[in-house]
Amino acid sequence: MTKKFAPAALAALFAVSAPALAANEQIALDRIEADRDRNVEVASTIWGLAELGYQETKSSELLQDRLAAAGFEINAGVAGAPTAFTATYSTGDGPVIGIMGEFDALPGFSQAAEPAKQTVANLDAGHACGHHMFGTASASAAIAVKDWLTETGTPGTVRFYGTPAEEGGAGKVYMVREGLFDDVDVALHWHPGAQNSADIATSNSNKSGKFRFYGKSAHAAAAPEQGRSALDGVEAMDMMANMMREHMPQESRMHYVITAGGRAPNVVPDFAEVFYYVRNPDAEVVRETFERLVKVAEGAALGTETRMDYEVIHGAMPLLPNETLQQLVHEKMTQVGGVDYEAAELAFAQELKPTLANPDVPMSEATGIDPLSEDHGAGSTDVGDVSWAVPTAGFNTATWVPGTPAHSWQAVAAGGMSIGWKGMQNAAKILALTAIDLYEDPAKIAAAKEEFLSRKPEGYEYRALLGDREPPLDYRD
């Protein structure tokens, strides 16, 4: 869907060292450093809560309270999601910079902040994607930018977006659809990771749905002829979907889990459910593939004499990259630097390393800054929809031991201790410095907007992949 935008002499850019910090930028960095203990406290609290998508009541309230105490105007429960909110601070008519923050956890990732696999009693979920740090660092950056705007007398607006349910709930999509980004000049985000990078990145678009089959219960031994198995419907769908893989574009991905399949082998199940994801770099290919998947489900129901309905759960556009903004972010990341481990952190990392699938990734990945480059990620994010509404930039900092994959217990572990917190602090600083530079040099905003428009196909009109459905507030139930 996206046009190719020729990089502007990337090789030369790699050789350029970042300039030193200006005196007034130190205002923001001093605030973030002064807030270090508070940031750790907030991140640790959200890490311990480990609330799932659209259920992040306490996590959302904690961030709202912190921003309200700093003077931000809170608009809670936006876009039909009780845990979604915006927090706005303005010093007058000037650029509007949005900073996004997530805070949802993942189910099935209970893990202590230890370098060995160790579940936490009475807790099933965990922050295996580091969103407890994502929301905290972004809020800290927004507060630091607010201080800078006020103390320098610069006119402008900083707005924090509290975005729930990124993990399969597409919280940002509803905020985009609601028009909450319409007045924003630039949107910024970051994500926890195992290295420091600000790539000119794209991603896969994604659409998901739950397919539900309804049959007739019967005794599986005494009267099987009287039953019609809903599980047969699911299994027939899965078989045909796996055959469909041969006839999908090479770049496509499709994966599923059976979320309900019956309770007892001697009872023909009258209900079964399977949850599917479809991905491709092109949103239109995702739409078409999902429609084929619906036909597969209809055929499975027909062949097993069951009834089927389905619910679209979420959809996300691919990231629309912006080289202009990513160059700026990379410059600020170079100024801030990477993460240096102290003795206890190094011992933690060395004990955790052998548990990784790729333990040979050098520790220097945490300390150094990756060169600016183009990259396509196989995953998906609802930031994609934001990037089609407003020029958007993002980055990763090293909050995990190098070599750690997202969605792993190792990510939960490092995110609950000082290795994660150091990367989180760096992220807050990079966000704040990027925003400040944009306020000071509106020409960069204009250039980012020009590139933004050039990358969109002619005649492009935004259509959310999830359609007109309301947020699936119970999708994690």
UniProtKB/TrEMBL annotation:
<dbReference type="GO" id="GO:0046657">
    <property type="term" value="P:folic acid catabolic process"/>
</dbReference>
<dbReference type="GO" id="GO:0005737">
    <property type="term" value="C:cytoplasm"/>
</dbReference>
<dbReference type="Pfam" id="PF01546">
    <property type="entry name" value="Peptidase_M20"/>
</dbReference>
<dbReference type="InterPro" id="IPR052030">
    <property type="entry name" value="Peptidase_M20/M20A_hydrolases"/>
</dbReference>
<keyword id="KW-0378">Hydrolase</keyword>
<dbReference type="GO" id="GO:0016805">
    <property type="term" value="F:dipeptidase activity"/>
</dbReference>
<dbReference type="InterPro" id="IPR017145">
    <property type="entry name" value="Aminobenzoyl-glu_utiliz_pB"/>
</dbReference>
<protein>
    <submittedName>
        <fullName>Amidohydrolase</fullName>
    </submittedName>
</protein>
<dbReference type="InterPro" id="IPR017439">
    <property type="entry name" value="Amidohydrolase"/>
</dbReference>
<dbReference type="InterPro" id="IPR036264">
    <property type="entry name" value="Bact_exopeptidase_dim_dom"/>
</dbReference>
<feature type="domain" description="Peptidase M20 dimerisation">
    <location>
        <begin position="207"/>
        <end position="301"/>
    </location>
</feature>
<dbReference type="InterPro" id="IPR002933">
    <property type="entry name" value="Peptidase_M20"/>
</dbReference>
<dbReference type="Pfam" id="PF07687">
    <property type="entry name" value="M20_dimer"/>
</dbReference>
<keyword id="KW-0732">Signal</keyword>
<feature type="signal peptide">
    <location>
        <begin position="1"/>
        <end position="22"/>
    </location>
</feature>
<dbReference type="InterPro" id="IPR011650">
    <property type="entry name" value="Peptidase_M20_dimer"/>
</dbReference>
<dbReference type="GO" id="GO:0071713">
    <property type="term" value="F:para-aminobenzoyl-glutamate hydrolase activity"/>
</dbReference>
